[in-house]
Records
---
Amino acid sequence: MRLDKYISLTGNGTRSVIKSEIKKGAAKVNNVTVKDPAYKVNEDNDKIIWKGKLLKYNEFHYYMLNKPAGMICAASDPKHDTVLRLFNDLKIKGLFTVGRLDKDTHGLLIVTDDGMLAHNMLSPKKHVSKTYYVTVDNNIDESLIEYFANGIDIGEKNITKPAKLTIVDNNSAYLTITEGKYHQVKRMFGHFKLKVTYLKRVSMGDINLDESLKEGEFRPLYKEELKILEKYK
Ligand code: URA
């Protein structure tokens, strides 16, 4: 793997900043300063020092992906492209997405190989909130704020848990929910005969989508974000 990629994957910042710092002599491979960002390192055997500190691959891996539409959240699928294909180059075994987004949904996905974290973040007991930016095909009436706050019947055993709707304009809003029922956002708006035309997850708990990630791009979670995840463990 390239030296700049390795340093970025171990959570040390963006590729472009890392590249320029490598050129200035911030990286050592096996005790020798390497100024070529494209230098190939062996991530299993090489000793890589960044600004005086030995880098280690974490026991577990945590990434934030900006999911594009058109990909599904599955390990593999004979018919559909999967978001995990984007991670193939990393050659990390056992990566999966924390929860799922529909094929046509965009936005924040946490991808990890830490099963315990995923279990806890998805546990109904932890009430991890998820916020979506939604556009719909017709007017969003202000009365929906109260309906969503009180819970609605979407054909499940129980009504939906209190959800917070913040209307942006006639056709768009942010919706925060604490559950993850199948097609939940689409079904909640569908209950009011509104068809979701665009859906993007912008946050999970206190982790916000990094808007500098283009669709299909991912990055390791930063240290502050990993601290937030500790709460869910
Ligand atoms: N709700 C939906 O309807 N779809 C998603 O992908 C996520 C939440």
---
Amino acid sequence: MMTILATVSDSLIDKKHVVVIPVFEGEAFDQQIKGVDDALKGTLSAMVEKGSLTGKKKSCHLVPTHGLLPCTHVIVVGVGKKESCTNEDLRHAMGTVSRTLQSIKSAEAIIYLQKGIWDSFEYGKALSEGLVLGGYQMTGYTKKDQETTGYTSLEIVASLALSQAFLDGLKVGQVVGQGVNHARDLANTPANLLTPSLYVKRIQELLPSSSGVSIEIIDAQSAKKLGMNLFLGVAQGSTEPPYMVVLRYMPVANQAPIGLVGKGVTFDSGGISIKPANKMSEMKGDMSGSAAVISAMWVVGHVKPAVNVIAVVALTENMVSGNAQRPGDVVVGMNGKTVEIINTDAEGRLVLADALSYIQQQGVKEIVDMATLTGACSVALGDLASAILGNNQSLIDTFLSISEQTGERLWPLPLYDEYLGYLKSEIADIANASEGRLAGTCTGAKFLEQFVEDVAWVHIDIASMMHYSCQSGYRVKGMSGVGVRTLVGYILNNVQ
Ligand code: BES
Ligand code: MN
Ligand code: ZN
């Protein structure tokens, strides 16, 4: 595991670490960078003159020192103009730094900060988040994967005084980054190695009692007693038993908790309305919403904020078998509503409906659910944003402003009343899907809304962001771990 130490020192050149220098566009080198440049016989200033070293966003140079410095390389990373460098620019740049360090198999580095923007909590947080996220490596199952690569420690050296807020941000960002990496690990785990039962074990390992988060497990039998037939209907096609897992973090007396709900479909074959074979393997990531929720609770267990949180994740497979639920079946949900199953592949909303009913009985004051709910979300937004919908504009606005800080893009979609017409059933209160393909993400959310009573609720569809297909900045190929930063941002935002 990576540790980030932050020290204020100017002992740059005599260290054996790789030297990392973030540079702003259009700013002259300060004394310290000049020192490095002199030692490198003007290599850096020559690059500036040639116009190859600009400090522009997304630029990064790996400069070999050829023995002129004790370290093998200097990494110069562009962060853009000082005035307009956002948290996300910094996160992106630091992710690139991490991957560059990995490419030269460097175990240790120091980052040299010259005068700039290193004062706020958010910048400190973004800096360490980017480093930890970019350093993520998927655990594979080949011989090669047994060898460890990448760095383990990173020291931040600055010739200027770093503010306490910045240093606090560094600490929190490191924990959040690790939380996201936990979510990535969970989502990347093949579905045969992360059945609902194995998932429960992983949750128990991640959240020991010392975390302050308690775990209650609702098995199929208890779920039956609670009337969670929508959840059980999805699970019935699988031989793997399903679990509804409830996490409670309640450090504050007499305060209504905020509620988190996550879709944890450990494999989504589509059921009888089976999916096409192409990319079906990606459906091992259909528990990404729950992974974000679990990992956010892991972060909570480490940061220990003064706010009550209850989380519910619905863990099940969606499989095909002689016991599987059929299109046309009618099922009664925990809240008494009858649902006609038009499409067994619209299973996420079914498991979430009962999870939403359950969490409302726990006296939550607000709810956010997170789910890889609809393929239509990718059609609408590409892999650049998650969709947000809900029944309360002010809660949606809160999330939109949190998103500016966390760098996890959220884009609002409408929940028009008329969408309910798409879900009309001849024989039940509601259908779980429409036969058409219109507004898939909105209809999914509209369905969920029918299971929310008088409480502010937002739904975040992360299907579009579930998977990164290429490396860039802190994005590492594979499951993204998206949502953790948003949920942590929301939780911390609720600390009074
Ligand atoms: N898990 C899928 C959505 C999904 C697709 C997530 C691709 C990530 C990547 C979800 O359960 C699903 O199958 N949704 C259907 C809904 C439809 C049947 C109304 C879809 O999007 O096609
Ligand atoms: Mn599905
Ligand atoms: Zn699904």
